[in-house]
Amino acid sequence: MTLVRSFAALAPLALLLLACPGTSPVTGPKDKAGPSPSASASAEAPGPELDAPPPTPKKAVFKEYHGESVADDYQWLEDGTSSDVKSWVGDHNRRTRAFLDILPGRQALYTSVRKFVEYGTPAFYAFQHKGGVLFSMRWRPPKQQPFLVTLTPVDKPNAEKVLLDPNAIDPSGNTSIDYYVASPDGGKVAVSLSKGDRAGGSIRVFDVGSGREIAEVVPQGAGRYKGKSIAWNAGGTGFFYTRYPAEGEGKPEDRGFFQKVYFHKLHTPVKDDAPAIDKLPRLAQIDLETSGDGKFVTARVESGYSGPKEHHVFRQGGGFSKVADAADEVERTVAGPDGDLYIISKKDAPRGKLLRTSAWKPQLAKATVVVPEGESVLLDVLPTLQRIYVRSSAGGPSEMRWFDIKGKPGGVVPTLPVSAVHEVVLLQEDDLYFENESFTEASAWYRFRASSGKVEKTAMAQPATADFGDATVVRETCTSKDGTKIPLSILRRKDAKLDGQNPTILTGQGGFGVVVSPDYDPTRRAWLDVGGIVAVANLRGGGEGGDGWHKAGMLTQKQTVFDDFFACAERLFELKVTKSDKLALLGAPQSPLLMGAALTQRPDMFRAIVARGGIYDMLRLEGTPNGAYDVPEYGSIVDEKQFKALYGYSPYHRVEDGKPYPATLLLTGENDPRGDPSHARKMAARLLAATSAKAPILLRSSGDTGRGVGTPLDHAVLEAVDVYTFLFHVLGIEKP
């Protein structure tokens, strides 16, 4: 399955679209004449007076957890369908707009940021090479959404043929391609389309030659995560797909759970589709993948986010059978062209080892070790008839190596220094396309020629809109509370003075085993131009150090992640990169909890916080539509030990009356399938009632988007401008 990495997801500051309930949408930037604040501004930067927040009544509700009574004054804000809540959100959005739209320097920021967001994403991405046809997602501003094209021959971007353009389907820009999967012969393509960034798109099938839609629409149901899965059979006569129970199937409370794998034969009624894998966990999340020859389909089933995994394989002429259970600690299975199954296992190898067994008769217990555990974390494998390519993470940055078919080391695939490899596509004769980017080099597609061992940049690259030739990336380490060394990347101009006066953005994640790798964000150019510095932390809880690194920051160990983050901030102070009143935190869409923990545990350490998504009330989390899927990572209130850990750091419950909190911008989307927007609503209400500081606390709630993927271009631009306008004002930065 190929997931579409949209421009909104790629640009970390293109966040969540704002559509104020009861107000007109924002149409463009506004500026107000007057002097901009200087870089030496006081803690209360000059600017427009912020309106008082709308009244928020307290309606205390008490609940007992393991003998402890906990009050919740703002539980009433959880009901997003309530007219009172909608009115309250609308009032907050109007207050936020009234403040941000007239801040000095907004017009100049809009001009520069628009260019960066429009062209900061690869022109081509999400490649698939099937039947001699190269498929790709294409990004071409000023179109609001990327579209699907074919490239024949490869390496000729001018030979593109548009196969499906969601902008033509929906000129408003609110319909997007979630992902697509081409059939093994390249003759057909199945595409998942959704509207308004909602989870649960519908599958539509197109003939590649004519571009015509050729089959019935297959719904995937209301699900908890976007980018569910499709895998074609060998002949391209049908496909396996994942689906949640439809309305009327099963119990109402089970909607959004018990996902299954079905098979759909083209030109037959969807209602006749039968389950291909039936007995799966309640929290099943399934990724399907067809082998290059179509003879095998692998299914990776994860129970909740970062939960235990089981693996199944389908063989042509047979059915699915289970290859590995949760206890086997298998991360990934890939069927090779030689009829073997390649397995990434973490059993007694927390950084991963590569095993091999027959795909026709897989026996995990008898699998042989092809590539033993190494220093880097094994992430992916791509077997060919002659070689085995592997992609690894070395503390965040990527590595690519190749081995012969017996596992003998062959060499390294050259990549950019301190960079990330996102996608790897097999061409012919063991040649590869791979997408590579770094903090200073724009994402582009490179071709690795197996015969010479050389890499060349292809023509399928977007010209860089921001030149980082004057910048450098320094890899530092921080010492956390327990003595563990934490990697930290620092992006700065070469001439930056380390005098503690630099406005600095610190970001990180530390959860779900996700690897935070180097990324090219052209909007950072605007930040560096005013003397700003960007620091990216690789915290425990992520996947940068393998399974043990992840486990050290999950469940009752989650506080470790926060301690790592604070250590990174302290390291920036020690290096005289910045100081507390020049430091801002920027949360990734997957890290609102980290921002909330920093805000409530060390508010003195930061001047400003921008938090995306919403996970702040850890006691009510698992009761939200998506929260059950988070239990494997965070824990459950049912377990007393886990409850104590959750309550101990829950940001919503750790807000203290009368404490001065830093400037805060909370962003959320009403369609977010991962972080229920009620968390941000409640957190905003609690902070506004408690803080003794005059620093702005703002809520920005989108009415018709989710977490950013699928956001129309115009909205993405305005979102990025809002974030930078907020940070420039709060940190007292004057735009040159």
From TrEMBL:
Annotated signal sequence is: 1-24
Q: Name one Pfam family in it.
A: Peptidase_S9
Q: Where is the composition biased (Low complexity)?
A: 34-49
Keyword terms, alphabetized: Hydrolase, Protease, Serine protease, Signal
Q: Does the keyword Cell membrane apply?
A: no
Ranges of residues in domain Peptidase S9 prolyl oligopeptidase catalytic:
523-732
Query: EC number(s) in its UniProt entry?
Result: 3.4.21.26
**Domain named Peptidase S9A N-terminal: which ranges?**
54-458
The reactions it catalyses are: Hydrolysis of Pro-|-Xaa >> Ala-|-Xaa in oligopeptides
- Repeat in keyword set: no
Q: Which domain of life is it from?
A: Bacteria
Q: Where does the record place the region Disordered? A: 25-59
Entry protein name: prolyl oligopeptidase
